[in-house]
Amino acid sequence: MMLERFLAAAALAALSASAGWAASDRITLGMVLEPPNLDPTGNAAAAIDEVVYANLFEGLTRIGPDGSVAPGLASSWDVTEGGASYVFHLRPGVSFHDGTGFDAQDVIFSLDRARGADSTNAQKALFEGIDKVEAVDPQTVRVTLKAPDGGFPFKMAWGDAVMVAPESAASNATKPVGTGPFRFEEWGQGNHITLTAFDGYWGEKPMLKSATFRFVPDPSAAYAAIMAGDIDAFPIYPAPETLAQIEADPRFKVLVGTTEGETILAMNHKHPALADIKVREAIAHALNRSEIIEGAMFGYGTPIGTHFAPHNPDYVDLTAKSGHDPERAKALLAEAGAENLTLRLALPPTPYARRGGEIIQAELAAVGIKTEITNMEWAQWLEQVFKNADFDLTVISHVEPMDIGIYARDGYYFNYANQEFARVMAELGAATEPAARSDLLKKAQEILADDYANGFLFQLAKTGVAKAGIEGLWENAPMPANDLTKVRWSE
Q1: Cβ-contact 164, 175 below 8 angstroms
Q2: What CATH number should be reported for the domain whose range is 259-461?
């Protein structure tokens, strides 16, 4: 009854609102999380890429809306030495937003900076295979790898691999300077970030003159802002319980697609109890994926049994290995001598984590595991959990594409270590044949499922809403991005 009253009130407010509904060359987009800064090469927060990827910063390559690798600041590239050398041909006439030119020296600076000993890049592993970066001429760069890597162009498409200039790299966190079709205009802390079209852009000019990203962390407020016309589109809409009402309104359209977001109950393997596979398996069997998806996402989400996206052709459905079985969970805890286990559960501010965390707390309690929830703001979660690994359990969506390799990283926040998995990842890195890569990816998925490396919950759905006249928004999210290069208002 309360929800119906709220919906009716918000709809009434929308009818009387004078917010502009007419087509224009400006757009306001809603976001749940405010980025901690605007430098994608120095922080792991996906909210950074949601503002700057393909809009403000560009890489040698880029990911398109279908997930394929496309040319970026490199118009093409040659692969030599069996995949151990890549020669990138840079686009002519490219400049940064401050007027400095872009050439091979900027590529060398960007890649050497990302892989340097003092690098703060959250995805430093993307660059570990690089042996050297050389300028063939001002418009040509040769990257020599330590070993063949058929996936190198894909790695260069990540937001963490965008090109930056030595003149402005140090201040990109607050005053970002890139080569993209939009330039940084202003940041109203706690409220919005505005980008404006860059007149000196090398490529096809965007149809929008300005884009404002407004931060609306509360689901009810997001619904009200959409209905009132204050926000034109919410690409990752946080209130799935209201999608039916929005879809029934001809002023709007609902975009439901896929993301790369494997949503997991991450476990810190440094915790003595969680280092025991029996305890991890018990936790996995305590979880009811259907209940979590329904309660946290109102049915939007696909169950997963390993750290891999179901829409990927190499996905293996391993959910049966960790099916909901509370009695099995209790027996495993008894075998491990962990019947009176208490764990800390850190929850970032996203709705899926807060809602899902409460459900998980009840499911773990049902098998005898007590959890103490700490609700964290995003900056606190990044510092305490992701950077310092000071946690026992946490709920998070890993939205980076094809990121199963994080389980082979030393010191990664959940501290997973498995020699067999590391060996498979090493073989994958050297493999160039599609069939061999497919086999290795399937093997890697099975290792994680058999080892109960984390609690694998669901693939995050992309549920977006927009005014009916907006075209060009991504329906799927192969990269955490709100790419505005093709967005426009219909006539």
Answers
A1: no
A2: 3.10.105.10
The CATH 3.40.190.10 portion of the chain extends over 2-38+49-54+180-251+468-489
H or E element, residue 30: strand 26-31
Q: Which residue, among 20, 26, 46, has the nearest Cα to 487 in the 3D structure?
A: 26
Alpha-carbon distance of 468 to 136, in angstroms, equals 49
Report the alpha-carbon distance of residue 391 to residue 348 in Å, rounded: 12
Instruction: Give the side-chain half-sphere CA count within 13 A for 478.
Output: 16
Look at residues 343, 352, 415 and name the one whose alpha carbon lies nearest to residue 374: 343
Q: Could you tell me where the beta strands, DSSP code E, fall in 189-285?
A: 192-197, 210-215, 233-234, 252-267
Chain centroid to Cα 238, Å, comes to 15
Separation CA 14–CA 223 (nearest Å): 10
Per CATH, the number for 61-169 is 3.90.76.10
Q: What angle do CA 443, 315, 259 make, to 5 degrees?
A: 130
Regions in the chain scoring below 70 on pLDDT: 1-23, 491
Q: Where in the chain is the domain with CATH 3.10.105.10?
A: 259-461
The string of DSSP codes covering 100-135 is -B--HHHHHHHHHHHHSTT---TTGGGGTTEEEEEE
pLDDT at res. 1: 37
Question: Which pLDDT score is estimated for 464?
Answer: 97
| C-alpha of 367 from chain center | 32
The pLDDT of residue 372 is 98
Domain range 2-38+49-54+180-251+468-489, CATH architecture: 3-Layer(aba) Sandwich (3.40)
- Give the predicted TM-score (pTM) of the model: 0.85
Start-to-end CA distance of the chain, whole Å, equals 39
Q: What is the pLDDT of residues 64-123, one digit of tens each?
A: 998 899 999 999 999 999 889 999 999 999 999 999 999 999 999 999 999 999 999 999
* Residue whose token pair is 């030119």: 101
CB-CB contact of 436 with 196 (8 Å): no
